[in-house]
Amino acid sequence: MAGRISAEELDEIYAFATNLGKEAGRLLMSYANARMSDQSASAEQKFLEKDSAVDIVTKADEDVEAFIKNSIEAKYPTHKFIGEETYSKGQSRDYLIDDSPTWCVDPLDGTVNYTHLFPMFCVSIAFIVDSQPVIGVIDAPFLHQTFSSCEGRGAWLNGTQRLPLIRTPQIPSIPARAPGGCIFSCEWGKDRRDVPDGNMHRKIESFVNMAAELGGRGGKGGMVHGVRSLGSATLDLAYTAMGSFDIWWEGGCWEWDVAAGIAILKEAGGLVTTANPPEDPETAEIPEVRIGSRLYLAVRPAGPNDTETARQSQERLVREVWKRVRNLDYARPGA
Ligand code: IPD
Ligand code: CA
């Protein structure tokens, strides 16, 4: 049970959050529909650049965030609110999550997708207690998908399909030859500086290591089944919770990009740790991730096999990824 919030309160907050996610998703889709039905030049998406030409904000981001913020403040005036657009204006440099009951909201994750009408965009709402995301709601209106979870109550797709999707006769274990046989999801992110050994180059090297044939790349080749980038961190996590992705590895995201996805993935039985490999990936402890660390490695829910528990097989996969990826440098601003 979550800290100072009773089970009854949590049920009520969960129902409120799920309903809010769906309403906000409908609002977001109304902006997308308005553009699709408007044949004039004004249908062209207008956006403003924030930190760079790929870090953008639209009127939909701002209006959907205002709708969510007002709804939460009306219902839960004592709870803290952190939203992507509110933060951009405030620019705090600290870790944003503390022990207070907190709503952490991305009104539109996948803003670039939204501007191109690529359907992988969504509203992402998390409720956090004692620094742990205990409720997650992700509504992807163009996909007609709503993901939701609450601590101890399971993780769900559209309220009816429990995650991960394959559960019978049991949740599949991690393949023996992993990362072979796995789908690896990752993101290019927004740090596009073309500097030798910068984040973009380190990411590309890591992607190629994961993709290359076994034995290739000086032994680092992982020959994953496929490499995918949805362009939405929170949907990457939701698809990992579904079991559709086996691995998600990313650096650079902020609290609102991941909070709801982490809630859903963990409730489904997934594991989340840090993206950056320790000195000895084979023996190092696997740390709990700190929301706000900006470095994430997630592994899907797994079943046991003849020789390993579910957790052991997930940890094996974490170590196999760590052996193939580079350290990324995404300190918090000013840190
Ligand atoms: C971005 C997406 C992207 C991730 C970036 C995020 P936005 O969020 O989640 O997948 O790589 O780090 O900032 O800008 O679409 O809300
Ligand atoms: Ca986002």
Please, could you describe this protein's structure?
The chain has 335 residues and is an alpha+beta fold. It folds into two domains: 7-36 and 48-162, Fructose-1,6-Bisphosphatase, subunit A, domain 1 (Fructose-1,6-Bisphosphatase, Chain A, domain 1); 183-323, 3-Layer(aba) Sandwich (D-Maltodextrin-Binding Protein, domain 2). It is 33% helix and 19% strand. It has helices spanning 7-37, 59-75, 84-90, 111-115, 199-211, 233-242, 255-268, 310-322, and strands at residues 48-49, 56-57, 80-83, 102-109, 122-129, 132-140, 145-150, 155-157, 161-162, 183-186, 226-228, 247-251, 271-273, 295-299. A seven-stranded mixed beta sheet has the order 3-4-5-6-7-8-9, sandwiched between helices. The longest helix has 31 residues, at 7-37. It is globular. The structure holds D-MYO-inositol-1-phosphate (IPD) and calcium ion. D-MYO-inositol-1-phosphate binds at residues 106, 109-112, 187, 189-190, 231-233, 250, 252-253, 257.
Strand percentage:
15-25%
Count of strand segments: 14
Mean pLDDT over the residues: 93
Q: Report the radius of gyration as a whole number of Å.
A: 19 Å
Separation of the first and last Cα atoms: 33 Å
What does the main sheet amount to? 7 strands, mixed
Helix fraction by DSSP (H/I, runs of at least 4): 25-40%
Count of DSSP helices? 8
Q: What is the CATH class name of the largest domain?
A: Alpha Beta
How are the strands of the biggest sheet laid out side by side? 3-4-5-6-7-8-9
Bound molecules: D-MYO-inositol-1-phosphate, calcium ion
- The structural domain count equals 2
CATH topology of the largest domain: Fructose-1,6-Bisphosphatase, Chain A, domain 1
User: What would you give as the CATH superfamily of the largest domain?
Assistant: Fructose-1,6-Bisphosphatase, subunit A, domain 1
Class by SSE composition: alpha+beta
CATH architecture of the largest domain: 2-Layer Sandwich
H/E element order: HEEHEHEHEEEEEEHEHEHEEH
* Shape by Cα distribution: globular
